């Protein structure tokens, strides 16, 4: 059983690579390193103790990707490759639509050519938009508020339509909530470019002294302490969710959208305090105005993942904070050597 991981050198892809190998399957990684480093693949190899087949290929380049299908017997595809920065997607929408949709078209056409039928897609809780109907259940109406989100929404629709027209296909749309943390070795983790947009990498850089203080975006939300509530899940739990989805796809046809979250919402200040407790340090912070586009509360109804995939998240918020800080301490400049 061999799994093609597009974007496999990225944050979630690299962790998933390890969990798939741990589960006894083979992997082939394709990444153009647009938002990652080849060093991540070296670290993955260090963790698993052997070489991992990987190609520096753009998933929109059909000829180059065809070679990967020719050289490897692929049984299923996990499609992580894509751009993911919300703010950048507002400034450069075409770049986002092009990369995030073209890569799917190219993959589907090659999968057809080579008789590969199982497709696991990296979707996002962003498809629930700013719905207030928490916890989010998969059958809620979807709709987005930025181009990045629309690329997820459109990919979901394209994949549903394609699977409907091609009944041999098995498509799993995994809607991730907020992955944080890192592999417990501290060898791989989240390595954002420049000043982080997301909460956990920002917190890590404040803890390390690289950034002065955390700016908490709003404390006037209708939440228990007024700060935004999210469903943070450990990236290793998320990675294991992919293993379960790959196994599920092998035995089921058609399309399923499945949330991957813990089902628990924590506020920004909950996370700050958990980080302080887990790592025995103090995080300076100030309260700033709300960030445009942010909702108050987002967390998963995770029943479907348990029922269909037999998957539940196991790690705690403290585990996530400890592992994120371990990665940051060991790699103050990320993968830069
Ligand atoms: P990431 O940027 O670390 O990983 C994406 C990888 O895809 C990178 O290594 C990048 O170089 C590669 N890539 C981009 N375009 C490519 C192309 N055309 N060809 C080949 N490689 C390409 O991001 P991540 O956090 O690991 O996210 C993985 C997927 O999960 C993305 O699709 C993202 O939108 C989705 N997602 C992420 C989050 C999150 O919080 N991190 C939440 C929901 C969904
Ligand atoms: C953001 C994206 C979302 C994407 C997700 C995962 C936006 C508007 N949304 O979600 O589309 O799917 O990342 O990549 O960018 N916060 C602070 N200070 C900070 C950073 C964040 O207070 O410096 C707060 C936010 O207001 C939010 C929470 O922390 O309440 C989590 O923020 P973040 O990590 O950026 O994730 P999301 O906003 O959920």
Note down, in words, how this protein is organized.
The chain has eleven helices and 13 strands. It is of the alpha/beta class. It is globular, with a radius of gyration of 19 Å. The model has no long low-confidence stretch (mean pLDDT 97). Bound molecules: nicotinamide-adenine-dinucleotide (NAD) and uridine-diphosphate-N-acetylglucosamine. Uridine-diphosphate-N-acetylglucosamine is lined by residues 84, 86, 124, 126, 149, 178, 197-199, 202, 215-217, 228, 230, 268, 291, 293-294. Nicotinamide-adenine-dinucleotide binds at residues 6-7, 9-13, 30-36, 58-60, 80-82, 84, 99, 103, 122, 124, 176, 178-179.
Radius of gyration: 19 Å
Q: Output the strand order for the largest sheet.
A: 3-2-1-4-5-6-11
Helix/strand-derived class? Answer: alpha/beta
Q: What's the total helix number?
A: 11
- Our estimate of the beta-strand percent is 15-25%
Uncertain stretches of 5 or more adjacent residues: none
Strand count, sense and barrel status of the largest sheet are: 7 strands, parallel
Mean pLDDT: 97
* Net shape: globular
Distance N terminus to C terminus? 34 Å
Could you spell the SSE succession in H and E letters? EHEHEHEHHEHEEHEEEHEEHEHH
Distinct ligands: nicotinamide-adenine-dinucleotide, uridine-diphosphate-N-acetylglucosamine
Amount of helix: 40-55%
Q: How many β-strand stretches?
A: 13
């Amino acid at each position: 059983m061999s799994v093609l991981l597009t974007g496999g050198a990225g944050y979630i892809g690299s962790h998933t690579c390890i969990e798939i190998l741990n589960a006894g399957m083979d992997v082939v990684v394709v990444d153009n390193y647009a938002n990652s480093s080849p060093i991540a693949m070296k670290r993955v190899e260090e963790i698993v103790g052997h070489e991992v087949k990987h190609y520096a290929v753009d998933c929109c380049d059909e000829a180059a990707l065809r070679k990967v299908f020719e050289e490897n017997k692929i049984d299923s595809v996990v499609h992580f490759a894509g751009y993911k920065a919300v703010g950048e997607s507002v400034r450069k929408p075409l770049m986002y639509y092009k990369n995030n949709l073209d890569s799917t078209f190219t993959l589907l056409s090659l999968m057809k050519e080579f008789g590969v039928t199982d497709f696991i897609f990296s979707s996002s809780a962003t498809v629930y938009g700013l719905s207030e109907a928490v916890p989010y259940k998969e059958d809620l109406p979807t709709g987005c508020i930025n181009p990045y989100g629309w690329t997820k929404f459109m990919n979901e629709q394209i994949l549903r339509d394609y699977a409907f027209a091609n009944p041999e296909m098995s498509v799993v749309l995994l809607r991730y909530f907020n992955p944080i943390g890192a592999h417990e070795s501290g060898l791989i983790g989240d390595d954002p470019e420049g000043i982080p947009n997301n909460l956990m990498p920002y917190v890590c850089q404040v803890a390390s002294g690289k950034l002065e203080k955390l700016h908490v975006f709003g404390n006037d939300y209708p939440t228990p302490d007024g700060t935004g509530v999210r469903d943070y899940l450990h990236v290793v739990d998320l990675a294991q969710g992919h293993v379960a989805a790959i196994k599920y796809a092998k035995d089921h046809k058609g399309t399923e959208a499945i949330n991957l979250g813990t089902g628990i919402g924590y506020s920004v200040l909950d996370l700050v305090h958990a980080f302080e407790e887990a790592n025995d340090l103090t995080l300076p912070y100030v309260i700033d105005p709300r960030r445009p586009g942010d909702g108050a509360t987002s967390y998963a109804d995770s029943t479907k993942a348990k029922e269909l995939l037999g998957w539940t998240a196991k790690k705690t918020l403290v585990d996530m904070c400890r592992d994120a800080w371990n990665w940051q301490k060991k790699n103050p400049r990320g993968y830069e050597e």
